[in-house]
Amino acid sequence: MVLILLKIIAGVIVFGLIMAACALIIGLFALIIGGASISIPFFPLGMTLWVPALGILIVLILVILLIYVLMCLIASRKPGGKTILVIFLLWLAGIIACTCIAIRENVGDKYPDQTQGPRTDVPERDNHRRRHHHPRAAAGGVRQPKA
Hints:
63% helix; extended
């Protein structure tokens, strides 16, 4: 009974992963076919289509790996070690390729620097802290009679 319930839950997760994979494939094709018109937010930064396309591909490979493993669990069979190894190596190669292209295009240098110091326009809240940690505040603010 518990195994059937777990397989039903895994089936719902697989359904969601298949929908996510379809959305990622549609997004990848839209990015490749649409070109500059779709990735307009990236072009002021000087980025090409490679970084977002490889980013989508990295997530898609991971989703395919999860679908494969869950489908094997639903079918009560052991996932093939070579298949998982190949998919994992493809995922790793995608991460390495995306990182290399991002470094080559200096993607990090194109974003504004946000390493500013702490804000000085925010007032201190020491009075608030003292009020809530006072012994009378723990008693509900009611004065206790002296014994």
